[in-house]
Amino acid sequence: MFYHNKKLQYFTPPEKPDxxxxxxxxxxxxxxxxxxxxMMQYLFQGWNCRGPAKYxxxxxxxxxxxxxxxxxxxxxxxxxxxxxxxxxxxDGAKDPVVGAVxxxxxxxxVITAAMNPQHAIVSGGGAMPADSVGxxxxxxFIVASGNLLADFRSNLHAESQGLMQAVRLYEMTDxxxxxxxxxxxxxxxxxxxNQWLAAIEDLKSEGFEExxxxxxxxxxxxxxxxxxxxxxxxxxxxAQGRWAKGPSMDGKGEFxxxxxxxxxxxxxxxxxxxxxLHATPQTPQQQDNGADAPPAVRVERIx
Amino acid sequence: MFYHNKKLQYFTPPEKPDxxxxxxxxxxxxxxxxxxxxMMQYLFQGWNCRGPAKYxxxxxxxxxxxxxxxxxxxxxxxxxxxxxxxxxxxDGAKDPVVGAVxxxxxxxxVITAAMNPQHAIVSGGGAMPADSVGxxxxxxFIVASGNLLADFRSNLHAESQGLMQAVRLYEMTDxxxxxxxxxxxxxxxxxxxNQWLAAIEDLKSEGFEExxxxxxxxxxxxxxxxxxxxxxxxxxxxAQGRWAKGPSMDGKGEFxxxxxxxxxxxxxxxxxxxxxLHATPQTPQQQDNGADAPPAVRVERIx
Amino acid sequence: MFYHNKKLQYFTPPEKPDxxxxxxxxxxxxxxxxxxxxMMQYLFQGWNCRGPAKYxxxxxxxxxxxxxxxxxxxxxxxxxxxxxxxxxxxDGAKDPVVGAVxxxxxxxxVITAAMNPQHAIVSGGGAMPADSVGxxxxxxFIVASGNLLADFRSNLHAESQGLMQAVRLYEMTDxxxxxxxxxxxxxxxxxxxNQWLAAIEDLKSEGFEExxxxxxxxxxxxxxxxxxxxxxxxxxxxAQGRWAKGPSMDGKGEFxxxxxxxxxxxxxxxxxxxxxLHATPQTPQQQDNGADAPPAVRVERIx
Amino acid sequence: MFYHNKKLQYFTPPEKPDxxxxxxxxxxxxxxxxxxxxMMQYLFQGWNCRGPAKYxxxxxxxxxxxxxxxxxxxxxxxxxxxxxxxxxxxDGAKDPVVGAVxxxxxxxxVITAAMNPQHAIVSGGGAMPADSVGxxxxxxFIVASGNLLADFRSNLHAESQGLMQAVRLYEMTDxxxxxxxxxxxxxxxxxxxNQWLAAIEDLKSEGFEExxxxxxxxxxxxxxxxxxxxxxxxxxxxAQGRWAKGPSMDGKGEFxxxxxxxxxxxxxxxxxxxxxLHATPQTPQQQDNGADAPPAVRVERIx
Amino acid sequence: MFYHNKKLQYFTPPEKPDxxxxxxxxxxxxxxxxxxxxMMQYLFQGWNCRGPAKYxxxxxxxxxxxxxxxxxxxxxxxxxxxxxxxxxxxDGAKDPVVGAVxxxxxxxxVITAAMNPQHAIVSGGGAMPADSVGxxxxxxFIVASGNLLADFRSNLHAESQGLMQAVRLYEMTDxxxxxxxxxxxxxxxxxxxNQWLAAIEDLKSEGFEExxxxxxxxxxxxxxxxxxxxxxxxxxxxAQGRWAKGPSMDGKGEFxxxxxxxxxxxxxxxxxxxxxLHATPQTPQQQDNGADAPPAVRVERIx
Amino acid sequence: MFYHNKKLQYFTPPEKPDxxxxxxxxxxxxxxxxxxxxMMQYLFQGWNCRGPAKYxxxxxxxxxxxxxxxxxxxxxxxxxxxxxxxxxxxDGAKDPVVGAVxxxxxxxxVITAAMNPQHAIVSGGGAMPADSVGxxxxxxFIVASGNLLADFRSNLHAESQGLMQAVRLYEMTDxxxxxxxxxxxxxxxxxxxNQWLAAIEDLKSEGFEExxxxxxxxxxxxxxxxxxxxxxxxxxxxAQGRWAKGPSMDGKGEFxxxxxxxxxxxxxxxxxxxxxLHATPQTPQQQDNGADAPPAVRVERIx
Lengths: 303, 303, 303, 303, 303, 303
Known about the structure:
Chain A is mostly helical. Chain A has helices at about 20-30, 35-50, 55-80, 90-95, 105-115, 120, 150-170, 175-205, 215-220, 295-300; strands spanning about 1-5, 230, 255-260.
């Protein structure tokens, strides 16, 4: 069960509105690696967690923090959209196609043309659960597999991409308010990268996981192929990396470089199609005799 | 530019068809962490790579290998769908709602009811670029950010989730052919987890990256918040983890546990709405006087 | 900013697992009218709210409550998925296509075939942000327009559809735990329908809105068409409804029934295509002379 | 079965083209609350309607009218896209990145940069079934539940959001043709809001429904929670609304304000994971002993 | 503008309900090649048509016919869903996981488990705008490019895939009502394949188009590569087809078989990344000096 | 199994960067008819092919070629995005809303506002698997039905739309590098249209298919309706086309023009709803007596 405090975790208003930047900042709310993703990913991982209490509690701590990050960004976007110019200027509007050919265009009209139209038409000046091109956030953006090592690696990856994007957006503005606001979020994401690296170490030190997840892979896999790098691309620059030689990262093998990988399987021989499906068979004679044959015959062919 | 060899990288046909398992196995082709994801993710990362040749070459090696993994699985699914029972048995079909109330249902009819209907209606017995519930693979499943550390972490996460799913599917069948086939793929994914861990080490040893990505985060962030764990959830079990105390993973700070986190920001004061947007304002008097006001006035209010 | 309490708002565990029902219950989490929708809809409406404090506060109250409803349902689904049969029984599995033709199918195998495969392969026995056919929740499911009357009507509609679905799911099980759990949620949704009706009344009593939203519609619209019902479908049964006669609901007009509606506009004459676009024009002579004409000419044609 | 009349229900051509406005106007065709939504929603509600003939007839009347509204808007968009500037001007195009640094940009080039590129590349100057950011209309935008009260509330909500958006677009242009055209549509939407309010009254007067839908909710729900407002958010401004005190809207209870809501449920105890799923359990010892255990054992554990 | 006639174009009710078949039949309503696709595709092509009146009229004729096809199928699905068993039988329901181990499963319960749950929970026994796995129809399924030859080829393809799917569904049932109903639709699709072939001939005979569309391709393309088949796959079976030798289909060239295709381009040299984007560069020294450099410098580097 | 050659099939770098054109060119990578579509469509058709070896080999040849086309375009987009202006110019940035009212806007700022923001924020200057409005490529864009005639028609349609789009983009730029690059792709698409026409002829000459696909349609369809054109739209211009008179294209019938088509079916009578679904019935008395009735009764009503 959840509670809300009216104050924001952190906030600095922008010095002035910037509707085009508001469009771009939506990436941090509803993009693949936006705050809705980490919020939902951590909450679902917490709710689905069967492991020790410290992991579940930690996941719900950070998931709950992230709800507040969506809130902070939604507030920022409302400020950036303030007084967005939703209509061409009087004079410019007279001829939007050719405009005043002898003069330049009005910068205000550039914004009218380039802002996310849904920020005016749909949300009335508010944030939306969508990314910087208006594509909606969706549930396939998150993962909660039940296995904490796999999931903490997902979390580390999400925080790495997310911090990268926050930094890029930081570079894309000169507004001191926006920059101050983002610098708080950048610090929290710095913590979160540290946090997931620590959590991965914690899992291992508690004896839950080793390098490769899940551990049972060694039992099921053909281990003779588990340390080979296959060179599918012309040229052998890839032989120079750590992945091509030396002990494997799990300490259980030695990396090998396979310079000329060869197929180990046969040419595919997919079975001939059921006549009822009218797919093209080997020969025309096999085709379109699909009018209801007695199913007994077909069952016989299976055995 | 690419070339194709008709033989498969590896293949063992199933001992017998199993259309319901074919539905489930689609997860490994078109699911969030299926082979289409890693294939496209590595190819786009390779094509977008501006770093040293060994990374670009390696990305295109593994991306090209993964095209062949989609091929292997597509072939397997064609075999599993062989002779799929697309229609109820003669007798059972007489009354599909109540069936033979005194007897049990026909197992063949269970398959008819539960298989992915598109495997018959749409693909005519072939694999599809979709997951185990028929949701199509899409481009938001991949990431290629240009930053190799962020991307290699994404790759490690994708291979971790993907291997987990392959292992789960391995457990969900007794067919020796399918199990043999999957055991090859499990070994390759074991390699790939090792590979991305090695690649991360390689990047660092070459001087490209440190622990937190991107490095400039320290320059932009409010570092006083970069090592605090905020306890947003009742209870302090989360204080027991590695993330709550001791030196931070990047070696630049000390983890702190904030047991009672307090908001640092104010209550939000989003600006009053533009009358033209007909959003609800503070008081009724502000509303619906939106009939075209001269834009000059509005510009004045901005300055 | 948000806080989490470890206890659930309400909970009764199911008497026994039921993985197929778990698949169906996902509709209440991630369906169009599931709890993720109302949670996100109310939170975004609250964050975007510029109206009096009581509305903003109320929206954030209920939005925060709904986060806990997702939590309750996620917990329920984890219980329903307990010991889900992810593999055919030993004997049944021997021949999944034809099975034991002389005997019936194993009910456990029906579940293996019909449950949502991602509940095993992807989430490892946990809830997912998706609906009952596995389609992911997405941001286009919610609306936050800034206008509170329009939005409260959206909320009333969402709670009406949502309560209908909860009631249908209540009817679809005999498990006393699930029924008890749902009966709490049914009561809360009963409140929420009452709440939005009350909020609509409140808005009007405060002077914010009238019947038709936004009020300015009367100023902009051709009001001669604002009270006519057009009978586009053969037969005049539709003349018998309240919408076809009597004073209009906004008290500003009288409903009229137009039995034989006629077009008021001309036949469309869309302009001839730009030759550069190679769309088919009126005559073949106009076609494919699109090789780069001087743009000056085109501009001239615009003026 | 349907018939088409070549004339449009209403139409006024734009005074001049405006490709950026064409992009924005797509919201009214293919947006969440565009004409495709109401067209499909009313048609499906009509086709699925089992209630009295007057409702079915009325739904098909309005659904059929709405097909013509899509037609009107598609025609308008074709006019707005006439002579869209698909290429930078000769001089401006010489250096699209820096342009003439000493001069301003060409307004025509702003349009070239900001219009929906698919209006040129994909549709050749025609309307598309997508919204103002190019996101395609989809079937999850509509609802047809079979229950007419729930559905008429959905219709009222769709017409409220839709009219709001039409009014916003009306404000976003000065073109007299577009304004005249929209003013017809605004009048029809005014009718449609009235119509659904009337239809709701009609349903109740015929004895089909009461305030809360479905009526059986009272029978199934824990009614002691059916009139409580829970204050999940700090501060009690929400106590001042109609929803917090006085008789409930359904006349069956009294609103109560719960200022400090407390959880009624326990801490979640989701069951330990199946070892075959390799989710993280309570202790490391429980992990990865998942190699095929005899299913009989697992069945025993279920009983 | 459109009108509706209450009678159906054609209809035969099913002999008995079949909820699982209803799920499958949804493919014909909302699948990629379902009736919603052809309806919307023809209507948008008609609305966007600038060519001679006979084409526009014909497109709107068939588009209007297809609205009625959606109506016919929606009615059929309502019948097939009649009395769908939405709950396990009393006895079977007692233990849905293991069931009566000694007996077989109830066929009615198979249907309860395998039907589309949204047919009960969401639509209340009615059709939905979705396909056979519940994925919603969307606007990217259609094409209306403005060029009639390109579009008539799209129409031929859609009718070919659609008729194939109707025939497959015809084979998947024994219900005489459904078969009779489908046999009408199969005949109409037979007409429609003929119709688009005729329309393609008509376009050419009127002088609008030739073999390759758009005609201007010859003017813009490097014609030396316009008749070569490149053998990218090991083995030369592909040399045996009509596409590998003889005059080209457009009569303007001779097919050539390139047995060992070689790259004509260089190795890619994508430009080094902007430091502000923090992508990985050639050498570590280039990295993370991204703190705001004066833009003048960057502009200089462009020139 | 696949191999990669580092060189590109063809490539000419652009004369200068153009980030807005890069946004538009994404249509050729990830749009409905982009190279990802043909690549995946041909590969899946090849993998699913059960027909003679020459077809399978040919499909894999061209599918493999198309992977290289995605590669070429990804490289082009990286060049076009070089030095993309991700931030407003120093001075312009001072007041992004009103700008220098007396002067024109900076062309560089137009690009900053109008480019795809994800090209900076998400991909760091690289191509993405998405179209020109940022919508992701998805698996529903392709078709592989198993029937080669149906699929070759799909391929012809995809190449026709794709070539049209490439030609439109060719017209939308003056950059000689981009034009040269596209002219190679235009030639390959010219080949591919020829190729699929040849493949269709080849299939027929081998005896696999005739005009209408699948052939069995004549056996199942009501052939009396298989050659009629129904005039659903007012006016009879559509009588003037080849589709309205003369022998049908399959040589098996004579086209007929039905000027006044009449319904052949009855008014729909969808069955009354199950009370458990709470859909609105014919009369209020039938409603909401849905509390658990014994299922035996319902089963009886089915028989």
